[in-house]
Design brief:
By secondary structure, this protein is an alpha+beta fold. Among the domains are: 91 residues, no CATH class; 50 residues; 205 residues, 2-Layer Sandwich (Nucleotidyltransferase, domain 5), CATH 3.30.420; 99 residues, no CATH class. The chain has 24 helices and 17 strands. The strands form 3 sheets. A 7-stranded mixed beta sheet has the order 7-8-11-10-9-12-13, sandwiched between helices. Helix 19 packs antiparallel against helix 20, helix 20 packs across helix 22 and helix 23 runs antiparallel to helix 24. The longest helix has 25 residues. It is elongated. This is Protein FAR1-RELATED SEQUENCE.
């Protein structure tokens, strides 16, 4: 028997002679339930399948799995099966590697086989009555560690997808739901904790792959390329690139639109590259580049599909993205935790700061910590976000240590990994690197996630995938313009009597002004101390120590704070605003109201190809009604406003009536 160890008599003397292994007493050691159900020599079963199921149940309780190994017949041909061996899944040795140049290439996998000697042997009795099987040899000696119950369920032998679950998975795949979303839906349906389904994401992907014919996949891939070519014929500003593998199958593809390139030119200083989803229909990783404009609205920069999520694929995607954006690299790129992507960024974007999106990391927290922390999970989450926003790295490190001690997370591999990579996601370690506020988990993640989910929804029909994403982007551009208009029409209320507030309100977008206004209001609670020369100390009035150090260059009107908020977000901090107020500034210096956050007039509304977009009459009518509604609302606040509005609208109406009428701009009525 390969890799096995017989603790009975010679292999040819069964079933009359049978002995028990000396190691049998170790069965289920430390687990009374497992020990009580351990196999024993002489134990009888009606069928060999029943014996297998019994031994398999015992193995699972002990922390290993089994496989069928050898079968033997006795007394020549015609007597049937009389002896069978079941062995530990790690019995035997690794299969020999194929020779170089072999006709059938094989994957170079690591083998878990290590010559384990654990086994159970059964023999069939040939006495009177119904034949039965009995145990003729058993050993529970393992030369490797056994798994705990949290890990043994992940062994392939115990990962099972039921027929009903297979039907659900295939239905989800056809509707365009990602594998991660499938897993979460089924966890909720079965009321199990995250990560406790009887199968893994890899099993689901393998199932989807097995139900897809290679020929159909190739056809869909070709259609995807042809779709880009067709889009390019209609829109010459549309950009795309792709590669194929040695089998002429689509390997990588990426694309972007003219409006996306325009947005990137203004707001490509900080970019999120989300690679946490897959296109289930093709089992390809989907990467989406997004950013944030001056009104706090997500903007689409580009999309890629990658067959493999390795370093080479990510490097290709980053190279293509730079080509799309005229070789202009972002100041900061934020991603999920991915070692291959990290290596690609270091190689292709050497001057770009790489940071991790806290909200992408936090999306895994339920599966990582929910079962470990139990009822304390929500409290731990709140503490995590508090630590993310501490003032300095020393406070963060001390707080992290206290958190680990309080929640008894010593030895947790996820906690260890997070702490090791803290310089990539914890705000105290990222100060000074511009991120446009994208590191703020709560305020920014929700609109970006909603936008990304709309893009992912385009995979419901692969045949129109590129066009559907184009429609999502176009809709977002139009909705963004309406949102910007609504923000501009809002009545901004000033909260302080500081002249700088009114000046900033007139220059910055409402989104950016709200951030600066929060800092300005908070600055009233801080005291400023002029230390010497151009150095100031600013700290909260209730604090007797600590604070932030500021330097002020009067000649060039340059101010620098140790908190580095302006360098990170482009918004002046409360400490700098307090010093400017002390120095009797009535306006914020222009270079501290960056163009990125100003009320710049958006370019003329254009379609994805850069040409003027002809909106539907109903959309234009709705936008006009929104403006008129805001006009009436504002005018009604005083008689003076009402008189001014009436006068100006009357003049405007006269000018409008002087313009030629056109049915093309009407609602369609003649």
């Amino acid at each position: 028997m390969e890799g096995g160890a017989s603790s009975g008599s010679g292999e040819d003397d069964y079933p009359d002679e049978a002995r028990l292994s000396l190691e049998t007493s170790e069965a289920g050691e430390g687990d009374p339930a497992a020990a009580a159900a351990a196999p024993y020599v002489g134990q009888r079963f009606p069928t060999h399948d029943a014996a297998y199921e019994f031994y398999s149940g015992f193995a699972r309780r002990c922390g290993f799995s089994i496989r069928r190994h050898r079968t033997e017949g006795k007394d020549g041909v015609g007597k049937g099966l009389t002896r069978r061996y079941f062995v530990c899944h790690r019995a035997g040795s690794a299969p020999a590697k194929p020779l170089a140049g072999a006709a059938k290439p094989q994957r170079n996998r690591m083998s878990s086989r290590c010559g384990c000697q654990a086994y159970m042997r059964i023999g069939r009795s040939a006495g009177e009555g119904t034949p039965e099987w009995r145990v003729t040899g058993f050993s529970n000696h393992h030369n490797h560690g056994l798994l705990g119950q949290d890990n043994v369920r992940l062994l392939p032998a115990y990962r099972v997808i039921s027929g009903s679950d297979k039907d659900r998975i295939l239905m989800f795949a056809k509707s365009g739901i990602s594998v991660q979303q499938m897993m979460r839906i089924m966890e909720l349906e079965k009321c199990v904790e995250p990560g406790n389904l009887p199968f893994t994401e890899k099993d689901v992907r393998n199932l989807i792959q097995s139900f897809r014919k290679v020929g159909q996949e190739d056809e869909e891939s070709i259609d995807l390329i042809r779709m880009c070519k067709n889009f390019k014929e209609k829109d010459h500003s549309f950009k795309y690139e792709f590669t194929k593998d040695d089998n002429n199958r689509l390997e990588n593809i990426a694309w972007t639109y003219a409006s996306s390139v325009q947005s990137y030119e203004m707001f490509g200083d900080a970019v999120v590259f989300d690679t946490t989803h897959r296109l289930a229909a093709l089992d390809m990783l989907i990467g989406i580049w997004v950013g944030l404009n001056n009104y706090g609205i997500p903007c689409f920069f580009g999309c890629t599909l990658l067959r493999k999520g390795n370093q080479e694929s990510f490097a290709w995607a980053l190279q293509v993205f730079l080509n799309f954006m005229n070789r202009k690299a972002p100041q900061t790129i934020l991603t999920d935790q991915n070692a291959h992507l990290k290596e690609a960024i270091e190689k292709e974007l050497p001057s770009t700061k790489h940071a991790l999106c806290v909200w992408l990391i936090a999306a895994r927290f339920p599966s990582w910590f929910s079962a470990v922390l139990g009822d304390s999970y929500n409290d731990w989450t709140s503490e995590f976000y508090r630590l993310c926003n501490t003032e300095n790295t020393m406070d963060f490190d001390h707080g992290w240590s206290d958190m680990v001690n309080h929640y008894r997370l010593h030895g947790n591999r996820h906690i260890a990994s997070l702490f090791t990579s803290r310089n990539l996601w914890a705000l105290p370690y990222l100060r000074g690197h511009f991120s446009a506020g994208l590191t703020a988990s709560a305020t920014v993640s929700k609109p970006i996630n909603v936008f990304i989910q709309r893009i992912l929804g385009a995979q419901t029909c692969l045949a129109h995938f590129i066009e559907q994403i184009a429609e999502v982007v176009a809709y977002k551009v139009q909705a963004g313009e309406q949102d910007m208009m609504q923000q501009n029409l809002q009545n901004i209320s000033l909260k302080t009597s500081v002249a700088m507030e009114g000046h900033a309100a007139a220059v910055l977008t409402p989104y950016a002004f709200s951030k600066l206004q929060d800092e300005l209001v908070a600055s009233a609670h801080y005291a400023s101390f002029h230390l010497q020369g151009c150095v100031f100390l600013v700290r909260h009035h209730a604090s007797a120590e600590g604070g932030c150090s500021l330097t002020w260059n009067r000649r060039e009107e340059l101010i620098s704070c140790s908190c580095q908020m302006f360098e990170s977000t482009g918004i002046l901090c409360r400490h700098a605003l307090r010093v400017l107020s002390t120095l009797n500034y009535f306006q914020i210096p222009d270079h501290y109201l960056p163009l990125r956050w100003r009320r710049t007039q958006p370019p003329h509304s254009k379609s994805l190809n850069g040409a003027p977009r002809h909106c539907k009459a109903s959309d234009r009518m709705e936008a006009l009604q929104s403006v008129v509604s805001a006009l009436v609302s504002e005018a009604a606040k005083s008689n003076e406003r009402m008189d001014l509005a009436t006068k100006e609208v009357t003049l405007l109406l006269v000018r409008i009536r002087q313009q030629p009428a056109s049915v093309h701009g009407s609602s369609g009525k003649r």
